[in-house]
Amino acid sequence: MRIRKCSFCSSPVYPGHGSCFIRNDGSEFYFERSKCRRAFMKKRNPRKVKWTKAYRRAKGKDLTNDFSLELERRRDCPLKYDRETWQKTVAGMKRIAEITTKREAKHIMDRLKVGKKIENLKDKQEVDRNIHLIKAPAAGLRQKKKEMEVLMEEDEELDDEQPQQEMVAMEEN
């Protein structure tokens, strides 16, 4: 028996599980659960249904363009194995599993970095929008008081200069 892939969500369908649908043209569709079968019969697009692997690949949430994933594909041609080839194959499968886990971990970390940047940007925007909640009201009063003092000093200087200018203008007449 072989482990098949669900035709809708791409998850594995183990022997004795799931259901099979055969169209009139002879094409076979395997479904892991009735949820997948119902969605398929309703002609839903797996790339638009959020819980499917096709959606995750289309939105860049899963690693897709990786050579190590190509090695998992089903091969229809039978091969004769001797003991040496079999041992090399098992060792190669272990190595491929290591490489795949490393690449998936790197992919996840890259996605998390982008998410952190977006989160920091949103936090900064929220602080800018709601700065009045963070700033103490007294701090604004102190700043206004200082501005008023500066304006009063400037007015006093202008008032002191105006009589002097008037006296100079009278002397010239």
For the structure shown, list the relevant keywords.
173 residues; mainly alpha; two-stranded antiparallel sheet; 61% helix; elongated
Structure description:
By secondary structure, the protein is mainly α. It is 61% helix and 7% strand. The chain has six helices and four strands. The strands form two sheets. A two-stranded antiparallel sheet has the order 1-2. A two-stranded antiparallel sheet has the order 3-4. It is elongated. The mean pLDDT is 83.
Task: Break the fold down into its secondary structure elements and pairings.
Elements lengths: L3 E2 L6 E2 L5 E4 L5 E4 L2 H8 L11 H6 L8 H4 L12 H47 L1 H4 L2 H36 L1
Antiparallel strand pairs: 1-2, 3-4
Distance between the termini: 118 Å
Helical content, roughly?
A: 55-70%
Low-confidence stretches: none
List the total number of helices.
Answer: 6
- Overall 3D form: elongated
Number of strand elements: 4
Task: Name the beta content range.
Answer: 5-15%
Order of helices and strands: EEEEHHHHHH
Summed over residues and divided by their number, the pLDDT gives a mean of: 83
Question: Order of strands in the sheet with the most strands?
Answer: 1-2
The whole-angstrom Rg is: 37 Å
Class by SSE composition: mainly alpha
Task: Outline the biggest β-sheet.
Answer: 2 strands, antiparallel
Concise overview:
With 173 residues, the chain is mainly alpha-helical. 61% of the residues lie in helices and 7% in strands.
